[in-house]
């Protein structure tokens, strides 16, 4: 019959099979870091074990403060006090992690944190805990975190090949995000049945278990210069400042994190109380964000985005989306969808940017350069918390949300004026050039199995 196209069933079947096989190869490639490196598997398992306890700890700590008679002010102090030593000592932690075995530093940091949590658990079990002890525990834990963070950031480059950094970081983020969603609910069950002290004791056990697992890592030593500590810090700053793309992106992140914290973490719950009926609605919004973070890790594993600068700037701009939706009184399903999109974008951005930084910075400079990056991004966090109340009082919650959204979107794409930022791309994997995003092909993927 004229004008009726003839459908070739065999051709359609071939296309479908190609799509299925392409997806299977993408999944196989996504777990290459685990298949190719025993050290990475141990590192991933240790981080997963530790995260199960660390994700339960804030909930348990909150009820522990209430248990000893503390109120909102005491709780805020306990939760915030760890940030001071963490930011103060982070540069020192980076210098130490580039001068000594990073695996050993992580083991010691976990042992210290585990001991602190064990003492807190004993104090709570024996009903001898008082506020100053919990504050002191937070200070010590924050100090341990200042050394653990740069070492953990720097060691990934030593565990996998350079071209697998994207997948290695995505797997870490994926497992941690899944735990961050499930662990607080588990903490609620544990606290209700056995008390907050039991949840904190579990956190101590996971620190010790993770320390043992990390002690079994066999990581090549990085080349270390026998320089004084001050000189090591100067070298870290020189490396950080010499990379224009790096300090521009850190500055952008620092400038945008303040309005995001004001709008989402502080004003968002206030808006939910006044306009959405209370915490149940806000819980759905937060769940949408968490689901987006998990989805973002899956996106990185399967689609493997390479244009780091464009991805990071677009993701930062997406932080204005939920704030805009709140400001225009969007219905709850739209708010949940907006936070989901932001979660996807942020996780893709964090994964790709961390992978690019690890691929560009020399292995012997990883921890120091990362410590400057982390410190630059964390410094505005206390400022955001302090400004939220006065801003809402001065202009109102809804106008403040709108203003925060405008600031984020205005600053998000500014880094793209830099040629170095526009040129940020992750290296292609074998056979990855020319792949279509819609129908992935298998060229070059199976050869790395």
TrEMBL record:
Top-rank taxon: Bacteria
Membrane association type: Multi-pass membrane protein
One Pfam assignment: MFS_3
Organism: Actinoallomurus liliacearum
Keyword vocabulary terms for this entry: Cell membrane, Membrane, Transmembrane, Transmembrane helix, Transport
Compartments it resides in: Cell membrane
Name this protein carries in UniProt: MFS transporter
Family annotation (CDD domains): MFS_MefA_like (cd06173)
InterPro entries to which the protein is assigned, alphabetical: MFS_trans_sf (IPR036259), TM_effector (IPR010290)
């Amino acid at each position: 019959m004229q004008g009726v196209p003839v459908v070739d069933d065999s051709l359609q079947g071939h296309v479908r099979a190609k799509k299925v096989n392409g997806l299977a190869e993408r999944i196989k490639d996504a777990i290459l870091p685990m298949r190719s490196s025993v050290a990475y598997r141990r590192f991933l398992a240790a981080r997963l074990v530790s995260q199960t306890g660390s994700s339960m700890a804030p909930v348990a700590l909150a009820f522990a403060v209430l248990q000893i008679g503390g109120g909102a002010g005491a709780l805020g102090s306990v939760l915030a006090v760890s940030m001071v030593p963490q930011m103060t000592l982070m540069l020192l932690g980076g210098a130490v992690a580039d001068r000594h075995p990073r695996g050993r530093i992580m083991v010691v940091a976990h042992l210290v944190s585990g001991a602190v949590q064990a003492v807190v658990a004993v104090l709570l079990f024996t009903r001898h805990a008082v506020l100053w002890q919990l504050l002191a525990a937070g200070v010590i834990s924050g100090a341990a975190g200042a050394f653990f963070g740069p070492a953990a950031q720097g060691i990934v480059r030593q565990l996998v090949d350079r071209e697998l950094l994207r997948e290695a970081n995505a797997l870490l983020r994926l497992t941690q995000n899944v735990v961050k969603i499930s662990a607080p609910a588990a903490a609620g069950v544990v606290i209700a049945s056995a008390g907050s002290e039991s949840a904190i004791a579990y956190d101590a056990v996971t620190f010790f278990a993770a320390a043992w697992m990390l002690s079994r890592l066999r990581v090549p030593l990085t080349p270390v210069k026998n320089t004084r500590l001050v000189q090591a810090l100067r070298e870290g700053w020189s490396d950080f400042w010499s990379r224009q793309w790096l300090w521009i992106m850190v500055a952008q992140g620092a400038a945008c994190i303040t309005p995001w914290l004001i709008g989402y973490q502080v004003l968002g719950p206030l808006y939910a109380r006044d306009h959405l009926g209370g915490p149940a609605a806000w819980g759905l919004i937060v769940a949408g964000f968490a689901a987006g973070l998990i989805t973002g890790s899956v996106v990185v594993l399967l689609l493997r985005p390479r244009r780091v600068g464009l991805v990071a700037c677009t993701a930062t701009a997406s932080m204005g989306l939920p704030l805009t939706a709140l400001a225009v009184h969007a219905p709850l399903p739209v708010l949940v969808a907006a936070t989901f999109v932001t979660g996807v974008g942020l996780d893709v951005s964090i994964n790709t940017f961390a992978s690019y930084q690890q691929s560009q910075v020399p292995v012997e400079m990883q921890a120091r350069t990362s410590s400057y990056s982390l410190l630059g991004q964390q410094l505005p966090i206390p400022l955001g918390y302090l400004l939220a109340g006065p801003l809402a009082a001065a202009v109102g919650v809804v106008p403040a949300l709108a203003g925060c959204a405008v600031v984020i979107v205005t600053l998000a794409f500014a880094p793209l004026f830099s040629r170095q930022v526009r040129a940020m791309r992750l290296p292609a994997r074998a056979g990855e050039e020319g792949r279509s995003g819609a129908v992935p092909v298998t060229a070059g993927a199976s050869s790395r199995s």
